[in-house]
Amino acid sequence: MQKLPAKTGWIWVKEGFALFRKQPAEISTLFLAYMFLMLALGILPVIGQVLPLILVPVFAMAFMQACAQIEQGQRVYPTLLMIAFRSPVLKTLLKLGLLYVLAAMIAVGASSLVDGGVFWRAMTGPGLDPTQIAGSNLQLAMIMAGVIYIPAAMTFWYAAPLIMWQNMTLGKALFYSFFAVRRAGAAFVLYGLAWSGLGVVVPMVISLIVGLLIGNATIMMFILLPISIILTVVMYCSFYPTYTHVFGKPYGSANGVTPAFGSDSDDTTR
């Protein structure tokens, strides 16, 4: 596994757009079905707050599998959301999800050292009144939580596909994920900056144009909402090339089972 140049981060973004263009309606429908399911789970009392986080690795594999099938020219259907639930590694993916929750709690909890627990209460409680937010270091606490979470994000990034597509144990997948992200650090920095820019600049430019031409807030919202959804779906699609450029393409992934790897790895990994 060789280090990837920084420009690879932009290549991942472009490949995400390329995957989206092949089946835009299908992958968008998959995403909307996922969002609807998350909203439905959120209605559940108590567990509804943590269950969507626990299921992140499970549903993440639906999008990874969808991208693999798009790449192979196969049609994507919303039922793909259930693919990891039929996998023999489901329990391991759920354990990974529990680690997601634990890591997030540690990061948000540590930020209490900065703002006295305001961010923690905002994330876990019914909400805060403006007076509590005004006198706190909430923004600094959010930044601190994000920085603390970075090592966990590196550990989790590739873990789900390594578990499902390479049959790795939980510990081994976490280990390989962390060091793979570390070796591709420059590419991930550019990748993150690119998506940060796209997420801010594109809506800002569109808002400015619509504001100048129409000046109607309702129409602006109707325009920005689908664009935001499209950008989010494309970002999900770009997760797949971050994996294939490092570990190669999954062999037989269209079967929805835990496949081994073929020899058609990307040239950047050789």
From TrEMBL:
The keyword Nuclease does not apply. The keyword Transmembrane helix applies. Keywords: Membrane, Transmembrane, Transmembrane helix. InterPro entries: BPSS1780-like (IPR047798). The chain crosses the membrane at residues 92-120, 140-165, 186-213, 219-239. This is BPSS1780 family membrane protein. The lineage of its organism: Bacteria, Pseudomonadati, Pseudomonadota, Betaproteobacteria, Burkholderiales.
